[in-house]
Amino acid sequence: GENVEQHPSTLSVQEGDSAVIKCTYSDSASNYFPWYKQELGKRPQLIIDIRSNVGEKKDQRIAVTLNKTAKHFSLHITETQPEDSAVYFCAASEVGSQGNLIFGKGTKLSVKP
Amino acid sequence: NAGVMQNPRHLVRRRGQEARLRCSPMKGHSHVYWYRQLPEEGLKFMVYLQKENIIDESGMPKERFSAEFPKEGPSILRIQQVVRGDSAAYFCASSPTTGSALAQYFGPGTRLLVL
């Protein structure tokens, strides 16, 4: 079955700097890769997703890149702000399968003002 | 359009009691997924349901746990004879019937504490 590895587990940056979180997956059949942001005690919120027919997707300050050959994908946050502080989870799934997401263990991002 | 609803938000049970967790998907969504999250860990898939059908229960323990999504009403995750190890946050997510069928939107979760 699918296995998703995520790193780093913690990341601390200064406000205004960029943050990069990386994930690798094992199942070459996976072709849907969402990213979720979870604040303490809150629900996971879908912030961006990418499908394997594209290599990069951008939405304002966040972007995701996908390398299918190497089976890894990354989340990039530019011009970080204190409100970006949260735990970020990557996940992988296969279109046409049951659709359940396999999650990484999360990255705790701290943005220092 | 209301988001995914879950209740109760917090549930305290003593060992051996039953826990019932409810999830109402977003309007127009007919796919429901349940996940469990232990403190400071990721989300683990438990079960995937559509109306009146369990599609995939490969992540759900075979004993004490059951799930349903009836034709009318919310999806229910039921845990019988709870043990301390069942203490966790339980999230459900729903996805649309058509279009981006894989985009899953999460509810606020039910935090279960077993004493």
Give the SSE map:
The complex is a heterodimer of chains A (113) and B (115).
Chain A: E1 4-7, E2 10-14, E3 19-25, E4 32-38, E5 45-51, E6 56-59, E7 62-67, E8 72-77, E9 86-92, E10 102-103, E11 107-112
Parallel strand pairs in A: 2-11
Antiparallel strand pairs in A: 1-3, 3-8, 4-5, 4-9, 6-7, 7-8, 9-10, 9-11
Chain B: E1 5-7, E2 10-13, E3 19-24, E4 29-37, E5 43-50, E6 53-56, E7 65-68, E8 75-79, E9 88-96, E10 105-106, E11 110-114
Parallel strand pairs in B: 2-11
Antiparallel strand pairs in B: 1-3, 3-8, 4-5, 4-9, 5-6, 7-8, 9-10, 9-11
What this model shows, in words?
The complex is a heterodimer of chains A (113) and B (115). Chain A is mostly beta strands and 113 residues long. Chain A contains no helices and 11 strands. In chain A, strands 2, 4, 5, 9, 10 and 11 form a 6-stranded mixed beta sheet that branches. Chain A has a 5-stranded antiparallel beta sheet with strand order 1-3-8-7-6, with no helix packed on it. The termini of chain A are far apart. The model of chain A has no long low-confidence stretch (mean pLDDT 93). Chain B is mainly β. At the A-B interface, strand 4, strand 5 and strand 10 of A face strand 4, strand 5 and strand 10 of B.
